# Entry
Amino acid sequence: MDCPRCESALDRYALFGKEAVLCEDCGYLGVTVDHESEPREVESWEAAFERFREGGEERREEREGTS
Ligand SMILES: [Zn+2]
# Structure
């Protein structure tokens, strides 16, 4: 898999049973999800870990706030 930004080779990491990809050249970070094969860009490692830790996107109310 190559970086979608700069086409360098991505490094792969296992995160809580899923897979994340990181480009050391441009800082691109993506995670793969179960029903998709394309990596999804996320905000930061911290956000990625938080998302995995909470088991998905169920805590998005903290980010969106209003309803
Ligand atoms: Zn890159």
